[in-house]
Design goal:
The chain is an alpha/beta fold. The protein is built from 10 helices and 14 strands. The chain starts with a strand and ends with a helix. Bound molecules: pyridoxal-5'-phosphate. The site of pyridoxal-5'-phosphate (PLP) has 12 residues, from α3.
């Protein structure tokens, strides 16, 4: 039986990428050495690294106003790193409380002696992202931090147009490479770890605006960040400041190649919307209750409940018998969460929607 693995992250890789990684694992460069063993200062690895940087620029559609680096951190390290590159103690920074990850980012800012203004709090339900037109974003804020897709709660901003002029900082960990409407002109910084939309755990990308680059370098130094934590030093070293996570970078390289070969973000976005259409199509009936309000639904994380917790459990158990795994809802939310990132095929989404239909006709 085929396994349909809808984990929120780490997540299913595209089948073609998994096959290629297996094929190339032990002799990656045709010299009888695995990427896991090769020196990161070797010609072969440097080529792989340069190509990965170029591909990421290209596939993520990063304009020439911005630069991109790979870091050996996860998204959570960036909560603290980004604020230390973009602000000093006492500065005003704006945050939104839209979910578990947004909250942890806010808490790190609050613990760093910043004047943190929460411009929107969606709690306790966290099923809506509010109306940005109503937000009072202080003009002096160094940035407005937004979690583009709330992975746990299954909410996502329908547009990234926000009122005012305060620069944006975007956590795109579960959104990068799946939507093209990034307001680049206004965006100072984007970060995303790889294990959701473009790779496996162990690396992340940071995208920084050229205009603020030197200032960010100086601010990080003033905030006493060490050299290896400075985005600008990592960028200067072409993302090989210290020994990089060579295997995750290799997987990201093959993933980026794959995305490019099937049509880039344009295709990723189309497929994400298509998968979402299939699953929300089932949620929209009487039987399932979707968590997110309709205009703020995530295109990657489908969160819903059935009539009773017992029925939720039965749904998860029956799904498992059909090869559908890792769909139990987050502990604070309960219910069901099926996560479908760029690696999930349309067929797999179809299979899940069909299962939902069958379950409803049996128990509805
Ligand atoms: C998964 C996730 C994180 C945490 O990522 P790590 O790489 O595990 O630190 C942060 N933000 C969002 C939106 C996520 O989906």
């Amino acid at each position: 039986m085929t396994t349909h693995y809808f984990s929120p992250g780490p997540a299913t890789l595209p089948a073609a990428v998994r096959d290629l990684v297996k094929l190339e694992l032990l002799d990656t460069f045709g010299i009888g050495v695995s990427v896991m063993e090769i020196s990161h200062r070797s010609k072969h690895y440097e080529q792989l690294n340069d190509e990965t940087l170029r591909l990421a620029h290209d596939v993520f559609e990063v304009p020439s106003t911005h630069r991109l680096l790979f870091t050996p951190f996860g998204a959570q390290q960036h909560f603290s790193l980004l604020l230390n590159h973009l602000s000093r103690p006492g500065d005003t920074v704006a945050y939104t409380e839209t979910g578990v990850w947004a909250h942890l980012a806010t808490v790190d800012a609050q613990a760093s002696e910043r004047n943190v203004v929460v411009v929107f709090d969606g709690g306790p339900k966290l099923n809506s992202l509010g109306n940005p037109k109503d937000w009072k974003i202080p003009e002096e804020a160094k940035y407005l931090h937004l979690t583009v897709n709330n992975t746990v709660e299954g909410t996502e901003y329908p547009t990234l147009e926000f009122p005012g002029k305060v620069p944006l900082v975007l956590d795109m960990t579960s959104a990068l490479a799946s939507r093209r409407d990034i307001p680049w002109q206004r965006t100072d910084l984007i970060y995303a770890s790889a294990q959701k939309n473009f790779g496996i755990a162990g690396c992340s990308v940071v995208i920084l605006k050229n205009d603020i680059f030197e200032q960010a370098r100086a601010t990080a130094k003033k905030n006493l960040l060490g050299n290896a934590l400075n985005y600008c030093s990592i960028f200067d070293a072409k993302s090989i400041l210290n020994t990089p996570p060579v295997f995750p970078i290799f997987v990201a390289n093959r993933y980026l190649h794959w995305m490019k070969s099937v049509g880039g973000i344009e295709t990723m976005e189309k497929w994400a919307l298509e998968r979402a259409r299939m699953v929300y199509g089932e949620i929209d009936g009487e039987f399932y209750q979707g968590h997110a309000i309709e205009g703020h639904r995530s295109r990657h994380n489908f969160v819903f409940k059935l009539k009773t917790p017992e029925l939720d459990s039965l749904f998860v158990a029956e799904a498992q018998k059909e090869g559908i795994l890792e769909i139990k809802g987050y502990r604070t939310l309960g219910g069901v969460r099926a996560s479908m990132y760029n690696g999930i095929s349309l067929e797999s989404a179809q299979y899940f929607a069909q299962f939902m239909r069958q379950f409803r006709s049996k128990h509805g």
